[in-house]
Structures are given as structure tokens and as C-alpha cells.
Fold:
Amino acid sequence: MIKTLTILLALFLLPTLVFAQDKFAVETKDNSLIFSKRDDGRVFYAYYGLKNNIPESLAMLREVYPCAGGDFVGEPALRVVHSDGNTSTLLLYQSHEIQKVDDNITEMRIHMKDAHYPFYVTLIFKAYYRENLIAASTELINRGEEPVTVYNYASQSLPVRANAYHMTQFHGRFFYEAEMVEEKLTPGIKILDSKLGVRAHQMRSPFFLLAPNQPVQENQGEVYGATFAWSGSFQFAFEVGGSEETWNDLGITMGVNPFAAQFALEPNTPFRTPEMLTVYSAEGTCKMSRDYHAWGRKYGMRDGDKPRSVLLNNWEATYFAFDHDKLVSLFQGAKDAGFELFLLDDGWFGNKHPRNDDTAGLGDWDYNRAKLPHGIAGLCREAERIGIPFGIWVEPEMVNPQSELFETHPDWIIHQPHRPLHLQRNQLILDLTNPEVKEFVYNVTADLLRKNPYISFIKWDTNRYITNGGSSYLPPEKQSELVWRYHKALYEILDRTAKEFPHVRMMLCSGGPGRIDYKALSYFHEFWPSDNTYPLRRIFMQWSFSHFFPSIAQAAHITTRGDTSIKFAFDVAMSCRLGMDVDLENTSEEDFEFIKSAIAEYKNIRDVVQLGVLYRLISPYDSPRCALMYVNDDKSRAILFVYQMEDDESGEKRVALKGLNPDAVYRIREINTASPVIAEREMTGAALMRGDKTFPLSQRATSMLVELTKQ
Ligand code: DGJ
Structure:
């Protein structure tokens, strides 16, 4: 008995470093995050890096949660005005605890209290051991009698100490999303943020890379990755300098954007910030991405271990111009080509104000009787008869002024009084802070799914951001809580949907990537990265998003966009979750046969592509070609993608592969081509990883898709 207890105790203590009283830490497989308590009770970061490289003596790097108003003069993590008007907060250590949540997750809680006021802060660090990921959040509790006003409430304030700081952001705009740009930070503050409220990530993704000392590298060097699990406005403030003690250091304050987001913290009402998810890698970004992918598949999305269906979407095939017969003929084509799901996009609803373009009908979720005389039920019957699963598009948070919903409930929208209506894509956002509106929005999808149990897939869209951000439901003193309360309501709706319809798969779409973050994704199975399906552009986007999200989460559809061959388009889309937006009725026989065979090939390789381990080999940002590969767990299969993006006759066109078993012999098979160019049929893993093999592409928009199978 005593022996068993000792073993159990040892197991539970294992992932926690044992330190003197004033130091405490959480660990992952490779890394340690260590804190240090000063004699006066203030707590500092002491180390975040490899656990086998901890310096003998640890510095006090940066206060763990710097507060405004006292002796800290940089960008604060916390800014509170206490009920008596005191604008400063002085947080002192009270206690900490480290608990094993399960065999992979350890949670450290550092409890702090203001030196004078009954204002409590708990810093929560959840360490995912195998995935090397640390999720940081903060809980605030006001145990006074009066409310206090909270202005800044970051999720984390992380220090990095190096000679130089290279930060990569993922910025963009509609159609040109997630473009990676690296810059060397200079003294002062660099802020990456969004103030868009809803669809908040349209112009800047809520993630970044930070490489100390030298520019970021794929397979070597240090890098910190960070992504914010929150769909509203965010702020990442990179401050080189910040206080006299740490003049050359970098402090990164990350969390909800404090811009116009203050709130009154009522007594005894805990407030918890969203989580900041960081991964540190000492072996470059690719290892960091592999850790994010493993975490994402297991904890960050729904059913991340289940391969996804190949789907046909009618959006770019028909846009709004379809009817019952057209859709049924597409079902048949989809079935014949080997698709496993048909997705009906925008345009199926609205009668008084039919949704025949984007000017009308949003909000009126009744099927359009002219286009669909047999209703959604009739479409489901036909899809079932043909044997193709059926999915449908909704945009429940939005309304067109030309709609019966707006005519009945003009007060349900987000809008400021005394201001003209400001439309984007001819639409307005419904005010989810109003419980009546929240219930309506929930029932848009729920009614559809209850009435039509054959629907097995929902594409949830959101096509504008907030302007004139006011609520006619919230009282004046709570107007600044709009974005926060909107997202609380949205997550409740999504959570209820996932619970009531657990078998229904969900695509997260927001006019492209306006809402791609790990909080939103936790209710979904995948996301739509961009409306730009031009394959040469998608290569960049898929590369960018792959830094934080696994391929199984990225929907990649082939359309007629772009001037590339159908093989090239397939080779690009097959590196993620494959789908198509084409009118199969107007596809040539030759293309139809190609589509059929490529889909069959994809079904054969998708377990490796969707669930395998990613190695990014050649960056499209650095050269006119791009290469990446996925390897399965036991290294018996790998899939390699090589894309030539510009004409280029130079060089030997070698690609050094990664992640294979050096001693194994691999059979090499080119996919999606009737005339393979690779002469060798077999090679050892060692030779392939040395770069002995050339992949001779020299013309713009050509590609090779290669399967490697261990013999
Ligand atoms: C924007 C999405 O990104 C598209 O895929 C499509 O669903 C349209 N909305 C429909 O309006």
C-alpha cells in the first residue's frame, strides 16, 4: 500500500520541477516555465525555454503580471481603478498550487492579492506535457463591497531576453489573407491588434512568431509561437524597454484589446480572460507547428482524429443562381465523381425578400419557394435517394435591412443611436447580447437541423465586422462590454449547437478567415481560410496557417479560379482537406475523369495528409518553389508535395526530405499524373533525406505529388 502510494505520489509530482520555496515551475516534455518570488512578495518570470538548459542562476526577468499606476511604467497587463479612485494596483504573492489534471495536463495557479484592496488575481498556466503547449489565462475577483473598473486585462505578459527580437506577423485583407512578414523590433512599442469586434481577424490573424537573436528558421534556432483563443478584438503589444530595470528586454502583453473594453467588476463575480496558447521550440518553427498540430487535433477542434469527407460546394459553381433541379443534378454528379458530401451554400432562403444576391433576405431563414418548391426536406430526400450526405450554409448572426426580420425587429442590430446605418456587404450584425436575439440565432440552425435530420454538415458564415458598435439592449454603462458579451453569447450558441447535434460537422467561415482562432475552432471541425482559391495564392495561405493549425482543419477547395491546370489545383488542395466548388455538369469529360481519379487517390492518402506529421521543406516566401510533406506515425508512409510557382530553369531541383526512417527502403509513386517523370522507383530514407533525389519542375504552376511507401 505504502509502495503504491509512493509511486502514485511520484507520478503526480513528476512533471513539476522541485525548487526552493521562492521558485516554482511547470514543465512540458521539452520545456520549463519558471517563476521566482522576490522577498517583498512580487512574482517574476525567471525562465521559459528548454528544460535541459536552465541557467544555474536565474534572473528576475519581468513581473509576471505588470500593473498600471505603480512603479511599472510600460504597457500594463492589468489596469484597474479601485472603488475609491485609486488608479494603482500592487499585486503580491499569496500562494500557488500545482495540480495534475490528467496524465498530460498540469495546471499551476499563482494566487496574488493587492497589497491593500480585497482585489485578487489568479494566474493560471495549463501545461500540456506531450504537446509542449502552455495555455495562460487570468482570473480576477473583487472581494470588496463596491465594483471596480477594469480597463486592461491581458491574458499573459511574457518576457524574452535576447540581443535582438525578430517578430513575424500574419497580416492581410480580404482575398490576401495571412501574409507572413518578419521584422526586427526596435525600442518602443509595436502593436498588432484588431478593433473589428466581430469577424475580428479579417485583417490580422491572432498569432505571431518571435525569434530571439536571429531571424526565424524552419528547422533550427529558438522561436516562441503564440496564438490567442478568442474571436473578438485582440492586442499583442511588443515593448522593447518598458521599465528601467529591463531596458533592453522585450515584454509581450497579449490578450483582449483594451480599446474601449472596460467593465465594472462586481463584488464576488470571478472574471476569467481567454487563453493565450504559447509553444517554445529550440529547433525552429516546424517543430513548433508540429506541437500546435498535435495539440489542435486533440484539444483545439472537434473530432480532430477523424478523417474528413471530400465535399462538393455549389458556391463558386452557381453562386445564387440555382433551383431544385440544378442542385439534384449536382448531387448526382457529386456521387458519380466520388464526393462524400454536398454543401448547399448561400441563396436558399427568403421569400418576401428573396436571397438572389447579397442585398436581401439575410435573417429570413425560410426556404425560398420559387427556387426550392420541395423545400430543404425535398432536397434532403433527393440527396438521400442518390446516397450523398447533405450540408447547408447559414449566416445566423447577420441581417439585411431588406428582410422581414429587420422590418419586425429594427432594434435587434448592433448600431449607435443618432448615426446613419453603416452597411458592409449590405448587412448588419444582430445584437447577441440581447437574450431574445441569442435565442433566435440559436434556433436558425437548430430548427433547420431538427426539421431535417439528414443534414450532416453546417457552414457557419459571418461576413462583416462591427462599426457603430452600440447595443440598444445594454445600458449606457455597459456599452463597452458589447464585444465581450457578444462572444460569450456566441460561444453559448455554438456550444449548445455542438451538444444538441454532436453528429453534425461544422465549418467555421467568416468571409474567409475573419474568425480563425482556437476558441472558435473548438466548436468546429474545420475552417475556410479565404475566398481566394487561386492555387498559386493558396500555397502561401496554407503555408501560413500551417504554422498554427493542422491540415485537417484547413478546407481547400478547387474552383475554376486562376489559370493553372486542374492537376496543379488538385495537388495544392490535396495537401489540406480537399473539396471543390465547380459545376460538374459543365466540366469536360476529360476533367471529370481526372477529378474522379484524384478524389480516389485523396481518399487513399488522406489519413497521412490529415493526421500525419508535417515537415515544411521549402518556403514559397523564400524561393520560386515550395515543398512540404506529411509522414505517418510509424514512418511507413509519407506524402510529398512540390510546387513550382515561377518559371525557373536554374539549379538541380533537389529536395531533402525529412522525418523518414533512414534505414527503410521507400517505394516512390507519383500521383495525379499519367506520365510520371521520376525514374527511380525505390530509394532509402537516408538518400531521400540527404536530398539525393531531384524533382525536376521548372515551369510556372507545375507540381508533383509523390507517395512514399516503406517496402
Ligand atoms: C463568404 C464565404 O467565404 C463564401 O465561401 C460563401 O459562403 C459566401 N460567403 C456566401 O455568401
